[in-house]
Amino acid sequence: MQSTSRHHLVPREEGGRYGPTVDLCQPCHSSVHRFLSNRELARLYPTVEALRAAEGLQTYLNWIRKQRVERITSRRGRR
Predict the structure, then answer these.
(1) Contacts of 29 (CB under 8 A, 6+ apart)
(2) With 50 as the cut, is the pLDDT of residue 43 above it?
(3) In which band, very low, low, confident or very high, does the pLDDT at 74 lie, cut at 50, 70 and 90?
């Protein structure tokens, strides 16, 4: 089963400490932060709908939709 992590829609560093959060699978959460800066997340993508439409994530989202969930792994912690 894929683990999830809590994503602050407005990053804590940008004033979203007590704001809304969503659970994302760890590979998706890592990718959001790999492709988008905290400033971009706060200013341009403060909702799930806006995040799904983020131009910088489209290639990743198109790829991830075609994958089998049980085969997706996270690179987090593998350094």
Answers:
(1) 4, 5, 7
(2) yes
(3) low
Tokens matching residue 62: 């198109």
**C-alpha dihedral, 39 to 7 to 4 to 64, nearest 10°:** -40
Give yes or no for a contact between 25 and 2, defined as CB atoms under 8 angstroms apart: yes
Count Cα neighbours of 48 within 13 Å in the Cβ-side half-sphere. Answer: 8
Instruction: Give the integer Cα–Cα distance in Å for 65 and 61.
Output: 6
Angle at 63 between CA 73 and CA 40, to 5 degrees: 90
Q: Give the integer Cα–Cα distance in Å for 74 and 28.
A: 9
- pLDDT at position 1 over 60: no
Q: Which amino acid is at 46?
A: P
